[in-house]
Amino acid sequence: MTAGGSPRRSGGRLAAAALGAVAVVGAGLVAVSLMQQVGDPPQPALGSGTSSEAPEEAEPVAGSGDADPEGPVRTADPSGASDMTPSAAPTAPESSAEAERPMTASEPVALSIDAIDVQEDVFPIGLGTDGELLAPSGDRANLPAWYDGSPTPGETGPSVIEGHVTWGGRPSVFFDLGALAPGDRVSVLRADGSIAEFEVYDAARYPKDSFPTLEVYGRTEGPELRLITCGGDLDADGHHLDNTVVFARLVPS
């Protein structure tokens, strides 16, 4: 064996190993790139935010070091709207059947929306120190959250459940929320074992700077449900400019 033979073979092995490593890394980068490619979520028609008291959006809430600017609306103390009559809320269509009677209070534990393939656990969420509605974060970032200052699903009034449209650059639980249309059903499993069944009657997108607080959180004649996420275009900082809101009413299950 010549003096230079071994280094050449060793160098060849090193080069082959390096090329293999580059190939693996390249494939990994492609996979990550593909996983992070998120198309536009479905967008309902743009509604008119009529509430002059709509507060500004709070800053994103940190969770396990991963705050997402594309999360749902966070309004300052939405519970303040509960005793006020909405000024221009979408009107639930009249039903030929007798209106569904309100259910007794029981917190939601799971949410099912067959039309957009959502079957997830639900957890309660409240207000932050500044009075803003917090958003799901950390280990529960991709779960829907029930605002615990609103009625439980099935009680009289608007029960509010929010969820992210994306999280960490990927579609989250309410990515397809804007695709819901009148007649679609939303089922909420409650802690007492009962199911509150809702029927969608409207969906709209509202600019965040004119979010219709009263229409979303204000008093209703019967049991209703509000599903909220982000929507619309992104601003220069990657924040969604709008919120998507789905309106539904309790129906016989």
From TrEMBL:
One of its GO terms (molecular function) is hydrolase activity. Residues 38-105 are annotated as: Disordered. InterPro entries: Sortase, Sortase_dom-sf, Sortase_F. Keywords: Hydrolase, Membrane, Transmembrane, Transmembrane helix. The keyword Membrane applies. Pfam families: Sortase. This is Peptidase C60. It comes from Brachybacterium phenoliresistens.
